[in-house]
Write a structure and sequence with these properties.
The complex is a heterodimer of chains A (130) and B (146). Chain A is an all-beta fold and 130 residues long. Helix content of chain A is 0%, strand content 42%. Chain B has a domain of 90 residues: Immunoglobulin-like (Sandwich). In chain B, a hairpin with a 2-residue loop joins strand 4 and strand 5. Chain B starts with a strand and ends in a 15-residue tail after the last strand. The chains are: A mainly beta (130), B mainly beta (146). At the A-B interface, strand 3, strand 4 and strand 7 of A face helix 1, strand 2, strand 3 and strand 6 of B. Strand 3 of chain A pairs antiparallel with strand 6 of chain B, so a sheet runs across the interface.
């Protein structure tokens, strides 16, 4: 699996966000089981309805949008993090059974289960004598 | 230990938190390159007349694994970032998320009412509300005209 996220600050695939908010590369753990690839992607502040996962052939794109939180009657005195957008793109080395993808968001961590597609049985092509 | 001064105009407090934020954004932009954040979790501190609200980013940590301790004017957030259970080491393709215990102490600008402190978590963001004791709140003094 190859990480094709682009360098600092930019959204994936060289594009630049039009909105003036930071775009982060979320930290990810990826492990493989016998029949699936499992990704854990950290996106603090992102609620389940603000996550998008796309798979185009072997290119997996994950985006998340963290809503800014306001506290009425309070002003920000110390700011060590800013809510922003998360984006990461992976190129998968295995074929994935697209219909079986599961995505679960819990405590700001996306858990993606990508079941491997069953290998098609090898075909033998008979060569005719011309 | 994050310390912020008596006023929001405090230039040092602003400079320190701006530096911390830059560092945090740098770490995050470079996630996956092996750069490790200095202090965890990153916090935002909101202040108002009623008290203080501290928010911290703790993705993957449930409220059960977090301990919040308030003593006079210090707030300590302790917890543990656990690894995913039952994953054999050899099956990892990538391991970027940091695991292990963490603790952070923050100095608050005034005493808070420890008995009324509440903590909630939403989407990996911890929110701690620290109300100011009634007796400690600033009072408006009416000036009588002669």
């Amino acid at each position: 699996m190859v990480d094709t996220s682009t360098s600092a600050g930019g959204a994936g695939r060289g594009a630049e966000a039009t909105r003036n908010r930071p775009v982060y590369t979320p930290a990810a753990d990826i492990h493989e089981t016998e029949d699936a690839l499992v990704l854990l992607v950290e996106m603090p502040g992102v609620r389940p309805d603000q996550v998008e996962v796309g798979l185009d052939k072997r290119v997996l794109t994950i985006t998340g949008h963290a809503a800014a939180r306001r506290h009425e009657g309070y002003s920000l005195a110390v700011c060590e993090y800013r809510p922003g957008d998360f984006e990461r793109v992976f190129t998968l080395s295995d074929m994935i059974d697209e219909g079986g993808i599961e995505a679960l968001m819990k405590d700001g961590v996306l858990r993606l289960t990508l079941p491997k597609a069953k290998a098609e049985p090898a075909r033998t092509i008979k060569v005719k004598v011309g | 230990m994050a310390i912020f001064g008596p006023g929001s105009q405090d230039p040092w407090g602003d400079a320190v938190s701006a530096l911390r934020r830059m560092q945090e954004e740098m770490n995050r932009t470079l996630a996956g390159s092996g750069v490790v954040a200095a202090e965890y979790p990153p916090v935002n501190v909101w202040r108002g007349e009623e008290g203080i609200v501290v928010t911290a980013e703790v993705p993957g940590v449930s409220l059960d694994d977090i301990e919040v301790v308030v003593h006079q004017n210090t707030l300590t957030i302790k917890g543990r970032r656990g690894p995913a259970a039952g994953v054999p080491e050899a099956s990892y393709h990538r391991r970027e998320r940091i695991v292990g215990p963490f603790a952070r102490t923050i100095a608050l600008p005034f005493n808070v009412d420890a008995g009324r402190v509440s903590a909630t978590a939403d989407a990996g963001v911890l929110t701690i509300e620290l109300p100011r004791p009634e007796a400690d709140k600033p009072k408006r003094i009416n000036i009588a005209t002669a």
